[in-house]
Design goal:
184 residues, alpha/beta, Histidine-containing Protein, Chain: A, 6 strands, globular
Length: 184
């Protein structure tokens, strides 16, 4: 009976988690359909990477927003970076591939921890900022560089997001790939 209850609680957690994802997607400017398209693109890119080299997805960051694929991370060889970009372009419905992959030695565990801290701090600040629609932004940090992609409701909102990122400790620079929503 206990095993059955634990199994069901896992299912309930999955259902609740999936419901939260769908709810957040519905609240985004790109909507549920856009979210689903981007998720499909991301899955296809990861599949292509895995077929090519099973560790590529672990070394290169991947965010997809409105068919725009943002690649981040640090790799040791230019060939690896070129493969990641080339394969990303092969996924159906890709509109653009933004290559922000660095060719260098990894900063190690300390840099990874610092980058995770920066991303976590920025996401928290955006989430609690009533003047920012935080669900419209994806944030990645690599070696102190914050990469942003998504949709800003207007230029003032985007300026606010960039300012919050720049104000965080250890941020070396902010790279903005956010589209400002056009008024219809």
């Amino acid at each position: 009976m206990l095993a059955l209850a634990l199994g069901l609680s896992g299912c309930a957690g999955t259902v609740v988690g999936a419901g939260a994802v769908v709810g957040a997607a519905a609240y985004q400017e790109r909507g549920i359909d856009g979210f689903a398209r981007d998720l499909k693109i991301k899955a296809r890119v990861l599949e292509l990477w895995f077929q090519h080299e099973h560790t590529l997805g672990a070394r290169v960051g991947l965010d997809v927003y409105e068919g725009r694929v943002l690649l981040t991370g640090v790799v040791r060889e230019e060939r690896t970076r070129a493969d990641a970009v080339r394969l990303a372009w092969k996924a159906e419905e890709v509109v653009d591939v933004i290559n922000e992959i660095e060719v260098a030695e990894s900063g190690g565990a300390e840099a990874l921890a610092r980058d995770t801290w920066i991303t976590t701090q920025l996401v928290a600040k955006l989430t609690f900022d009533q003047d920012v629609h935080a669900v419209n932004y994806e944030v990645e940090t690599v070696n102190g560089v914050v990469y942003l992609i998504g949709i800003a409701r207007d230029q003032a909102e985007l300026d606010r997001v960039i300012a919050q990122a720049r104000a965080l400790a250890y941020v070396r620079r902010v790279v903005d790939h956010v589209r400002v929503k056009t008024k219809s």
